[in-house]
Structure formats: C-alpha cells, structure tokens
Amino acid sequence: MLKASEVAESKGTPGIYVYTLPHYVRYPVDPDTGKTFLKVGHSAKDAYYRAGSAGRLTALPEEPILLRIYAVDESAAAEKKFHAWLRDADHMAARTKRAGAEWFLTSTKFLDRIAQSLNLQIEVINEFDAGDA
C-alpha cells in the first residue's frame, strides 16, 4: 500500500486527496459499513505535498496511505463541496482541540459517490475492504 502511495504521489496530481493510516485499514471503526477515519483534503499543487506535509507537521504515528485522488483544478471549491456532503450525511469525526478538521468517519464508497456527483475522475490508489490488513 505504501509503495502504491509513493508511485501516485510522485505524479504530482492536484486535486482532492483521501488518505488514512494503516491502523484504520487493519481496524476500521465500523467494519460492517467500511466506515473508518479518512482525511479528505485538497491541494492546488499536488497530493504528495499535502499528504507528506501533513505527516511531518502533525507527527502522525504511521506513514499515511493514499487511497484516492480526484483530480480537479478548483480543488479548494471541490473540497468545500466534499466537506459539506460529509457533514450533511453526519460523517463527522469527533472534534477535539488537536484533531484536524479534514478527518471524517466515512468510506471510500461514499467519497467515490460524491466524486461521481461532481463529475470527477476517480483514481484508485489503494483499495481496501473493511478488515483488510
């Protein structure tokens, strides 16, 4: 999974990116629905910069795994739409003073549906089913 993330990140595709931590792949929060904690963010520059910098700046305990890239030029506007859909569907993660606002309790299935609704191409970098190691 990490190798696939590195290959995709090296392309430098701007847009919406989705990543998670290996722990959440191994132990999804809700295995029956596939919902787990996913970070949904954007970068006008490239997904590698955002995912890589997030890991360094927030001192994540594991290397993040890139799951999806939804290429889009207007990434900030698209991110707002993704976040609005996630809030409206009550896919919010618990908010704390230290938790980032881009983490959601959701699934790639739901995020792919949002991308389809916005006519965005879905680039699957890593796929997992609930409970995959």
Explain this structure.
Helices cover 37% and strands 20% of the residues. By secondary structure, the protein is an alpha+beta fold. The chain has one domain (2-124). The chain has a five-stranded antiparallel beta sheet, with helices on both faces.
Task: From the structure above, extract its key features.
133 residues; alpha+beta; 37% helix; globular
Architecture blueprint of SSEs:
Layout (H helix, E strand, L loop, with lengths): L1 H9 L4 E6 L1 H5 L9 E8 L3 H11 L7 E7 L3 H14 L14 E4 L1 H10 L5 E2 L9
Antiparallel strand pairs: 1-2, 1-3, 2-4, 3-5
The description of the largest β-sheet is: 5 strands, antiparallel
Low-confidence stretches: none
Can you count the beta strands? 5
Q: What is the domain total for the residues?
A: 1
| Termini separation | 10 Å
**How many helical elements?**
5
What is the average per-residue confidence, as pLDDT, rounded to a whole number? 81
- Spell out the helices and strands N to C: HEHEHEHEHE
> Largest sheet, order of strands side by side?
4-2-1-3-5
- Helical proportion, percent range: 25-40%
